[in-house]
Design brief:
The protein has one helix and eight strands.
């Protein structure tokens, strides 16, 4: 479990307004933070940062929370998406154009009725090289994976 051990790790923490385009609202970042913000899949958005990417849930299960944290951070911070993220849906993760951190990890939390718990991808993904991350789950083997494009 990560914990806040430095002021630098707190940069990731975001206070955001979270919404879905079909609800006629938008995600707004904390202007003092370099953390990502979310836009729903139905919005047309011009990338504002080389770090922006689409996250696809192709696991067969709904996701309860999504965290994206700098690879060097000691804490996951606040969930950037804490609504039901159904399998088959995608969300766009947007970053501030001022952000200079390139490598990130991803964590998702599952609903209790689907086994609960969380899955972490501590890969230090270089988001400047990634457009889409598709999360998958193989029920036969019990392996969760991420496909990068």
């Amino acid at each position: 479990m990560r914990s806040f051990s430095s002021l630098a790790a707190r940069i990731f923490c975001v206070v955001a307004l979270i919404a879905v385009a079909c609800m006629n609202t938008a995600f707004m970042p904390n202007p003092k933070a370099s953390a990502p913000r979310m836009m729903s899949k139905t919005m047309t958005v011009t990338p504002q940062s080389d770090l922006d990417f689409v996250l696809v849930n192709d696991t067969g299960y709904p996701i309860k929370n999504v965290y994206v944290a700098p690879h060097s951070a000691d804490d996951w911070g606040t969930s950037i998406y804490n609504k039901r993220f159904a399998s088959g849906e995608s969300i766009t993760v947007k970053f501030s154009p001022k952000n200079t951190i390139k490598n990130y990890d991803i964590k998702v939390e599952w609903y209790e009725e689907d086994g609960g718990g969380s899955t972490v991808w501590e890969k230090g993904y270089d988001l400047t090289q990634i457009e889409t991350i598709t999360l998958r789950y193989n029920k036969q083997t019990g392996v969760t994976s991420a496909i990068i494009k």
